[in-house]
Write a structure and sequence with these properties.
Elements: H1 3-17, E1 26-28, E2 31-35, H2 45-54, E3 57-59, H3 66-79, E4 84-89, E5 98-99, E6 125-131, E7 137-143, E8 150-155
Parallel strand pairs: 4-8
Antiparallel strand pairs: 1-2, 2-8, 3-8, 4-5, 4-6, 6-7
The chain binds calcium ion (CA) (2 copies).
Length: 160
Amino acid sequence: MGFKSFLLLLTTIAAVQGVTCPNYFDQVGENCYYFSQDYGDSRSWDSARTYCQSLESDLAVFGIDCADTDRLIKHIIREDYATMWVGASDEAQENFWVWIDGRPVDMKSKLWYYNEPDSGSSYDCALLRFNSGVHRRLTLYDGSCSSSYYYVCEYGVHSK
Ligand SMILES: [Ca+2]
Ligand SMILES: [Ca+2]
């Protein structure tokens, strides 16, 4: 390899690894997330979305790349974050859960806690919560959209 191509290779590696996240966002893998708990801010699901959008982001979505989701979940467990809103709801049509980017939520996903979502038409927004019981893992629940929780914004998510 010539010196010039070697330099080019180094530059390329630096560009791939050098994800620069905006202020207030933490890098996890190649994505940038805003964890509102770091700033002591809890809100309703709608208000959380509005705030994320003011930061050129939206509530985090899962499942486009499973590795991204795995990294995010490991990060949340490591940082010991409390329950938080993520970007899925069945507000438009009961029992039809969609991510805010328009993709349907995989209802067979292991991310849903046992029997969730199970709370009906007044619980239409998705919460990510650590379950400390027998199944010690992060799982999705349906929550009441108007309740206040922490939330996680993902930079570059575009809503439909
Ligand atoms: Ca439930
Ligand atoms: Ca519902």
